[in-house]
Structures
1.
Amino acid sequence: MTNKYYMPTRVIMGKDCITENSELLRALGKKALIVTGAQSAKRNGSERDVKTALESVGIPYLVFDKVMSNPTISCVYEGASLAKENGVDFIIAIGGGSPMDAGKAIALLAVQAIEEESLFSGHYENKVLPMAFVPTTAGTGSEVTQYSILTNDKAQTKTSIASDLLFPTVTFLDAKYTEHLGVITTINTAIDALSHAVEGMLSVRASMVSNALAVSCIQMFMNCVPDMLQALQSGSEVFDLQQREQLLQASLMAGMVIAQTGTTAVHAMGYSLTYFKNIDHGRANGLLLGEYLKLVERVQPDLTARILAAMNFSRAEQFQKLVNKLLGAKEKISSAEIEQYCKLASQTKNIGNSVVKPTEEDLRTMFTQSFAN
Amino acid sequence: MTNKYYMPTRVIMGKDCITENSELLRALGKKALIVTGAQSAKRNGSERDVKTALESVGIPYLVFDKVMSNPTISCVYEGASLAKENGVDFIIAIGGGSPMDAGKAIALLAVQAIEEESLFSGHYENKVLPMAFVPTTAGTGSEVTQYSILTNDKAQTKTSIASDLLFPTVTFLDAKYTEHLGVITTINTAIDALSHAVEGMLSVRASMVSNALAVSCIQMFMNCVPDMLQALQSGSEVFDLQQREQLLQASLMAGMVIAQTGTTAVHAMGYSLTYFKNIDHGRANGLLLGEYLKLVERVQPDLTARILAAMNFSRAEQFQKLVNKLLGAKEKISSAEIEQYCKLASQTKNIGNSVVKPTEEDLRTMFTQSFAN
């Protein structure tokens, strides 16, 4: 089987890396559209730093700060209209996965007339606006992937645009923007990154390179677990900047992994939990990951052994117990909901991407067990 | 400190990946120049596969098969003239480090008039011919780096052209081309890759991403050591295709590492051994690596501990003993040679790139000890 590695985004990492590398923005064009959410980029200082960097190289900009959590299709068309009307040359997305995923779609739609029906086709002309990304959470990995995940009300799920055109041109990673994230958001996003790393190793497209990155990501997550548990117990923030950097790097590596491997049954199932039950994306993956790892363990114990070794565990159940501790009290799920979500999950491409492909019965069992405490 | 990750080459891996992905060549242009050495690409089947792939998509080609080991500056100017005279659109380099490094310089010189005096300046116009690379040894990593290392008679050493322009567009990794490499070449090239990984972790530019790749590379090298030792003892080939793939992937990852970190004092010293004493490049690094690791161990034991842990060693001396076993009887070196090489090494940029910067006295001791049996 032919395998591949491709991730052409230039990643710049370190404190104040945006303002210290503003000349990289100059190379992207003469006018920028900042794509972000309503609040966090203003609070954590990232929007200020981006504006300072743009001003220092004399680039005018507009701000589109209407991106909501789990961005909708209409949101990205609105952003693209703004980009076109104002003749911007490039996009700067700031935020968690939502503004970055929206930013990618906007960069595409700003230069191509794509009808909503064809948005997820994967067939586009070979043009897109250059993009600079500034992640302010440590989980999505969107800053180094070719995916834009949008809420698709017609399909009642989240659907991804996947195209090499969507790799950002440059990404700036500065952990200081993640310092003010609350404990729950920190844990949920870290679990999202963990899920990317683990699912990458469970993907039919896993390679030695993606596995190398995934194992490191898992180890870095585990390094931060004691402080996550302590933070949950004390209810207060205990992560120092070095740990924030570790989580941000883990998220970066996990993004580099799924750029190669895609995601698996876990994401396939998790999307329904987010779409219908409004469960945070990282949390949704975390709720399901242990149960899926147990399924894989029964069929391919060598595969799970490699993943568990990176955690110093020997059984998938130990992993599940740890994640359950991090997730706390679980939501309720009804049989009717499970039936509906199984149908939707079984139709996704992510299932086919899994080394161990769950049957509909497997999906039902996993949903049920994942919510049993 | 600002850190970076950038490696935009598309890597395609697997058996028959060239002939199965010939459409990727079509995207590079209408006429190709194959750059290779006189013999090995013909013997191992790689040149045949490249020609088959080109013919299947109707791309005419010329062959420049005059690249020698440690290619000279005049060789790359000759190749570039041929490329210009024949109006080729892209370069396909096949072979070990020498044809690939030559291929990069030819791709640059074919579209830019650069005088020999300015060849290593790092300042070029923003244009280069697209490149497709086919490594047929597992060591150099040139297929995923921005470096072209040429023999520089004026400076009496090997000198590198370093530019992001030199990242190949696409690289095809098929381990079958490495199956017929002899035991000594297999070991020397594997040690070259190992040296890249270890030096990457000893570089001031090491990052979490480069360390993740380096650790995996070191582990993969160690997996293959028992069979290397057995092959040396029996004098016959004992590597199966799976091990060849592991060595090729280790070399790829080590290349991705030095694309971020550059190399250190070891390469700085090794270049003289190759230039003046004609010691194979990988072997030269191997001769010096243990002694440098011992120097670092004295100053920064935490740093070497991380490297040694990936080998299941606790002391740099254990590592040195293992490499010495792989290298066998050593060459002789005179005090006059050592004096000369110390001077040359201390002038290189690689020394400044090392976390632990050896003094000239350190260099003298390392050269002496490395050749003491």
2.
Amino acid sequence: MSNPTLQELLDGVRSGNRRATARAISLVENADPLGYAFLREVFPETGRSYAVGFTGPPGVGKSTLLSALVTLLRERELRLGVISVDPSSPFTQGALLGDRIRLVDHFLDPGVFIRSMGTRGHLGGLAQATLEAALVLDAAGSDILLLETVGTGQSEVEVRGLADTVVLVLMPGSGDAVQALKAGIMEIPDVIVVNKADQAPAAAILTDIRTTLALGELERMPALITTEALTGEGIDELWSEIEDHRAWLGTEGKLEPRRREHLAREVFAIAGAQARTHLEQAVVDDPELRRVLDAVQDRSLDPLSAVREILETVFRIDSDRC
Amino acid sequence: MSNPTLQELLDGVRSGNRRATARAISLVENADPLGYAFLREVFPETGRSYAVGFTGPPGVGKSTLLSALVTLLRERELRLGVISVDPSSPFTQGALLGDRIRLVDHFLDPGVFIRSMGTRGHLGGLAQATLEAALVLDAAGSDILLLETVGTGQSEVEVRGLADTVVLVLMPGSGDAVQALKAGIMEIPDVIVVNKADQAPAAAILTDIRTTLALGELERMPALITTEALTGEGIDELWSEIEDHRAWLGTEGKLEPRRREHLAREVFAIAGAQARTHLEQAVVDDPELRRVLDAVQDRSLDPLSAVREILETVFRIDSDRC
């Protein structure tokens, strides 16, 4: 399908055709009008996939865990979409390849669609790229979307912003992450997994996490389990904890409000990122604005006056209030 | 000085008067026109302070380390400005207070000015708040600015964006941070400190860091030292490593380019944050735009069309390219 019509694209994706799905994602990523026409058309049908986000520090084995989970869910004949979100440099991608490669086992399975997301070429940044891919995979009939963050910071936010259930993956030695939970800097997830639990004693970190969770006043206590992703140990339990959380969201009527809030945040994140891209491009394109920036760098114009001037010129925002 | 004139404010801050300095920061934080007039006036004089940024996971003892460093630098009769950047919730601030309190020892020292930064009330977010405080403390004659990030993510970016020298503070057990360095997700700092080096064996993490650093092709190998901030051990060496880096920047002619790049990034960060704030406020204020958001949440309008409509209405951006 080198030049598909909108109808061919819709038919192909709706029937779960892999080539059509890959094509739809590429069209959207390349800002092709056909891609956007496609998204407009299918958006009302989306929301049928259940999205599970995996966050956690690098090196804890998230990709291996995901791969083991894919195997389990495929045995149960569920259709899967997998999205890896990685905002980092080409250097990083190389460094992490050894980890990511586990997912390659599933590349030939027609019931699994795997996509890696970078930041390149998207006016709306990572938020836009991730949302678009998720919507296409949702429309393609994925029962479950697995979203994995490879980096930290921004990518973690994007994954959480789309996930119905958030799984935090740690390992014995993830002292920083436990401290971040304790300090309230890291949001409490729905499920906590201590992976590589056989490689090092996990008792210390488990106690530490339990103590930390007991401190907060939580609406629902997160499940805490151990896994050994390489051997598949604990993966059954992981999935059953995710399903428990899903059932809880349903019983409590919390799934819809969570998704509505996520959609609003996505819109603001994408619009904000597009505005910022527009702003930087305007300064590149406009010699007058480049002079404003130069003046700041020479310390002849203060940065806040420069911001005001740029915003007025580019957006006609009157930032007197700032 | 309840209603100072601009001249009184300038005279007060330039002579290092604490009340005038506190007043100037408050005026700027409250978006008072006098505050901005003050910044416009003093900006050409700034850049005389040397800024050292401290990043690292929570719980490694950054505040204790900072406090010990303040003691050392005060013995050398340097004037200091200290800024703690914490973007987190009130809940977090409570949780971290035990740590932050170490700095209280220095609250009465007239040669040290300490300020905590949150996100509240700034159109331009944390970037703006931090830059403003740094400029005021620079104008007030600080020889050294010590910038500490309390949270992670955004606050780390702001601290790095102002720092001439970046110090990463870890402890034995900071496995996640070393993995992030290894994966290239965390930028390589100028100095790495392993604090609490006597509480747990530090050999493992030191080896791990050395191996990681050896992998990269670095322009300059970061110094790697151990400290025990509570007893003051290693603080002398920490300062001498910071001075070594400063001397290297000078010899290589890298200080000015670094600062110019930082200033440009600050301008974009502040302008971007202001644009985003403006956007969200516009949606709150405009019933028509709120309906657009509602339509997305009901899945009757796709998010990218909503983004386009919002950007056109608020900024008159034609985002056909997106």
